[in-house]
């Protein structure tokens, strides 16, 4: 069978209920992706099943997501399928608090009697969302991690049963955090779809139910990740585009997997991990606060806008650094210089490893 996408998977397997074909990693990824849909809009329209969606609502509920076309195609396929079309959702929660540097959202799907999937939304394009992500590097718990735990605990008391927790990107981190800080008897499985790690291993009793999926060129999914207990999925995307699950390849009812992540991904993880390990938490916080203060100096923006205007963004940051006092400027140069040193060191290690590898294959005569 040819390689397919998660949308193709729905089209090819949508006639099977979860009782006919058990819940799998592709299903977990699809429901994690659905967390990006604007459920506040759908709730206002009294829509609580995918089958009830209209073309207009599909368009409006996905227009502000990272990949509107992919999300619209997924919703169109899902609403026509027996597997996903009749899924009900409830208890949509959303909290955006710039002062707390928090952006949190979650939704609960009922996939069978007494069996639920809580989907935590991943990172959106807003500065406050990205700032909360970076705060994970120095904080014991960011506000959305605590909110994710509270949401699951409250939901499991309200609707006792079995639960899957999952999310893409930041949402995967929230799912793992909530599972690690809750009673685990009710948790049937937990999914992190290329989400950053928790800086420490999951509790042993959760590890057999944990499913972490990353693409071969993963960067985000390997951040703050001390473990290697993840599944590497083949993607037809390039570079950072592999973070998008719509580029992941499906065969039959499972993802196509490969042995390990790319050397570039390993290099990036080693460089960033070493750089972060060389800074104390206070330094990380001060550096990140100053970065985001410069980026948002001209008002709240979306990261998608900054990405389109990256030359201007870099010029703005450089001008902001130049305008600071001598002590702050030296601090910036010191930290960025450390990153340059780490990257250079890791590059030398990689080149030596490559040289030794080929030297063993072609020894001198």
UniProtKB/TrEMBL annotation:
SUPFAM superfamilies: alpha/beta-Hydrolases (SSF53474). It comes from the Bacteria. Pfam families: Mbeg1-like. InterPro entries: AB_hydrolase_fold (IPR029058), Mbeg1-like (IPR024499). This is DUF2974 domain-containing protein. It comes from Lactobacillus selangorensis. The lineage of its organism: Bacteria, Bacillati, Bacillota, Bacilli, Lactobacillales.
């Amino acid at each position: 069978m040819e390689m397919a996408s998660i949308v193709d998977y729905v089209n090819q397997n949508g006639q099977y209920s979860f009782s006919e074909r058990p819940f799998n990693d592709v299903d977990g990824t699809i429901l994690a992706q659905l967390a990006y849909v604007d459920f506040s809009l759908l709730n206002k329209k009294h829509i609580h099943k995918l089958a009830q969606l209209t073309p207009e609502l599909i368009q409006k509920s996905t227009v502000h997501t990272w990949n509107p076309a992919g999300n619209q195609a997924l919703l169109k396929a899902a609403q026509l399928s027996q597997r996903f079309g009749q899924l009900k959702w409830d208890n949509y929660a959303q909290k955006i608090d710039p002062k707390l540097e928090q952006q949190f959202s979650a939704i609960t799907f009922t996939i069978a009697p007494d069996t639920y999937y809580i989907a935590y939304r991943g990172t959106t394009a807003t500065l406050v969302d990205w700032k909360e992500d970076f705060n994970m590097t120095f904080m014991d718990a960011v506000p959305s991690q605590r909110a994710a735990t509270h949401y699951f605990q409250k939901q499991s008391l309200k609707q006792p049963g079995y639960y899957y927790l999952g999310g893409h990107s930041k949402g995967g981190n929230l799912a793992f955090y909530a599972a690690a800080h809750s009673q685990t008897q009710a948790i049937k499985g937990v999914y992190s779809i290329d989400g950053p790690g928790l800086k420490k291993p999951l509790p042993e009793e959760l590890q057999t139910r944990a499913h972490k999926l990353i693409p071969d060129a993963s960067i985000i999914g390997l951040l703050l990740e001390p473990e290697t207990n993840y599944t590497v999925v083949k993607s037809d995307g390039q570079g950072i585009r592999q973070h998008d699950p719509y580029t992941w390849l499906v065969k039959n009812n499972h993802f196509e997997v490969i042995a390990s992540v790319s050397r570039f991904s390993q290099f990036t993880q080693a460089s960033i991990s070493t750089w972060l390990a060389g800074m104390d938490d206070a330094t990380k916080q001060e550096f990140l606060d100053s970065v985001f203060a410069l980026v948002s100096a001209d008002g709240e923006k979306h990261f998608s806008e900054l990405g389109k205007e990256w030359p201007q963004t870099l010029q703005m940051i450089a001008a902001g650094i130049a305008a600071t006092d001598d002590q702050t400027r030296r601090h910036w140069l010191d930290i960025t210089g450390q990153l340059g040193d780490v990257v250079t060191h890791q590059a030398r290690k990689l080149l030596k490893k490559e040289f030794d590898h080929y030297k063993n294959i072609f020894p001198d005569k």
